[in-house]
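Milestone 3.1: sequence recovery, worked example.
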């Protein structure tokens, strides 16, 4: 609350009080006991993601392989200069979409973890002082010296 006794004062008074109840009473939630799944269901749950990934990659490879063999046996199928049937190229593009999405997502998750968990040295950048916020901002960036050199120039 603002100090109402002195109009020229712009200080903020905050009263700190201890909570009347203990933290055990406030945060005393205990989750219900977990009932174990049957062994078969537990195994399926543990391997479901691995099975999905295997089906996506192996299924794509098998589908492209079968289509390639079928088109290679067809004497009337057009082939490009490298010997790949022309009708196979749109199929490969279509079937590569899930693979590219999985790999792209995994790479970005890995990169985010690397950026989050990497030890970074905080520093003040002079360029941040010239922003519209008109205050110093702490920049957590491993190449902060490079940013300062660019902002000075």
């Amino acid at each position: 609350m603002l100090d109402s006794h002195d109009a020229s004062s712009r200080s903020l008074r905050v009263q700190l009080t201890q909570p009347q109840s203990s933290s055990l009473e406030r945060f005393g939630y205990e989750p219900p006991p977990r009932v174990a799944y049957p062994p078969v269901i537990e195994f399926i749950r543990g391997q479901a993601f691995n099975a999905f990934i295997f089906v996506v990659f192996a299924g794509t490879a098998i589908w492209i392989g079968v289509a390639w063999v079928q088109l290679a046996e067809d004497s009337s199928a057009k082939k490009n200069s490298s010997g790949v049937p022309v009708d196979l190229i749109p199929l490969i593009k279509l079937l590569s979409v899930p693979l590219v999405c999985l790999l792209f997502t995994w790479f970005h998750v890995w990169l985010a973890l690397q950026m989050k968990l990497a030890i970074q040295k905080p520093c003040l950048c002079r360029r941040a002082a010239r922003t519209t916020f008109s205050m110093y901002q702490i920049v957590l960036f491993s190449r902060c010296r490079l940013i300062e050199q660019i902002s000075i120039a």
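Residues 132-142 have pLDDT under 50 and may be disordered. The longest helix spans residues 39-73.
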